[in-house]
Amino acid sequence: MREYPIDRVLRPLDRFIRDQSMAGLALFVCAAVAVVLANSPWHDAYRAVWEYPVGLRVGGFMFERDLLHIINDGLMAVFFFMVALELKREFIGGELAEPKNAALSIAASVGGMLFPALIYLLVNDFQGPAVRGWGITLGTDTAFVLGLLALLGSRVPPAIKAFFITVSVIDDIASVTVIALFYTSDLSMGNLGIGAAFLAVLVLMNVLGVRNMTAYAVVAIGGLWMAFTLSGVHATVAGVLAAFTIPARAKMGSEGYVRRIRALADEYERTEETPNSLVTGEQLQIITRVKRCAAYAETPAQRLEQTLHPWVGFFILPLFALANAGIVLPESLTEAAGHPVTLGVLLGLVLGKPIGLFGVSWLFVRLGLGKLGAGVGWRHMAAISVLGGLGFTMAIFISELAFESEVLRADAKLGILFASVTAGIAGTALFLMGRRPR
């Protein structure tokens, strides 16, 4: 097959986009830039960018939000949509399809959420406006951790990556549930009812076998997401609900696909070649049928997940970090770290996460209720449990919802920054201390 110069450009670009470490690096760079800008003479301009209003007018209807809300309510709904697609795939044919793997991942995830939240509440004496921040300690930053694991290479068994991805996806879905239950106020039951009606339409489309993603997008964004946004329920919940309605079954099995593709390839081989670079009408029809077979052999859910991965990893999450990670650093970091909110977040993520993840995993394995993956030892579990405290993106996201006070938000984000750096360094060191597999 002839190779054009553009192919030599696109091939490394494709590898770059699919490299998890590069997505983590992009997130890190944007977070670092946000912190620098927030503590520079351009602080006011940096803030003003995210306050710029963006709106849509249709007749007498006007929908307007500032840029920060578009990112946090709109683009992050796409992130959670992809997370829910991943969870759906894991339950159908991934780690969660096997009962013992599912039991260990779910139990570890629950432990990794309960212990950090409990430590946060203990530090804040279970009272006052600060207690709303307990949800900040729940999630783990999947992109950052996967980036670190990719850089560590063969020191990380593939099974530990699968375990972490499963746990982090469960954490993210649990975080959305917490947002819906505890960080939602001033509900509009009318708009919520409209959202429920659009959700029913999406379910009906799935039942009827509709596989056109444009149709799902129109109903999910123009109906479900808009209704949830106006109802008071956070828009990310709409992203999760919409994901569970996307078809996850292929129309054509693997045997049928192989048989059909071979038949079409033979049919194409028997066609006459043209004297120029154009294909004949007959060849074009065969190519169209090949494309149709390929669409039937893959599931819409997996196709969407693959399409969204680079957009989420290289655009949505870095943009979120750039907009939300602008923490104004206090003159005395030591004094600031002693604030109950900052200390609660720090201890919850750095101590609570590994205690919950590792402790519950060890207990379940000892009781015979779960099992470690192939090539995974307790040192690997300890290392990944510590890295679980790197909560950056999810923690910042929930801190924006938990507190109305800018002061408390700043205190929480400072704790998130301290915890993420500490967990990242400590977890990476634990992996590096082990022997490299031969």
Integer average pLDDT: 83
Helix/strand class: mainly alpha
How many domains, in number, for the residues? 2
**Globular, elongated, flat, extended or rod-shaped: what is the shape?**
globular
Give the CATH architecture of the largest domain: Up-down Bundle
- CATH homologous superfamily heading of the largest domain: Na+/H+ antiporter like domain
The CATH class label of the largest domain is: Mainly Alpha
Number of helices: 18
Number of strands: 2
Annotated CATH topology of the largest domain: Na+/H+ antiporter like fold
Strand order of the largest sheet: 1-2
What is the helix fraction of residues, given as a range?
Answer: over 70%
Q: Give, in order, the helices and strands.
A: HHHEEHHHHHHHHHHHHHHH
Strand content: under 5%
Report on this model:
The protein is an all-alpha fold. It has 2 domains: 5-184 and 234-249 and 299-433, Na+/H+ antiporter like fold (Up-down Bundle), CATH 1.20.1530.10; 254-295. The protein is 72% helix and 3% strand. It is built from 18 helices and 2 strands. The chain has helices at residues 5-17, 20-38, 43-50, 67-93, 99-123, 142-152, 158-182, 189-207, 213-231, 235-243, 254-269, 281-297, 300-324, 333-337, 340-366, 378-387, 392-402, 406-433; strands spanning 53-58, 61-66. A two-stranded antiparallel ribbon has the order 1-2. Strand 1 (53-58) and strand 2 (61-66) form a beta hairpin. Helix 9 packs antiparallel against helix 10 (235-243). The longest helix is centred in the last third of the chain and has 28 residues, at 406-433. The protein is globular, with a radius of gyration of 24 Å. The model is unreliable at 6-10 (pLDDT under 50).
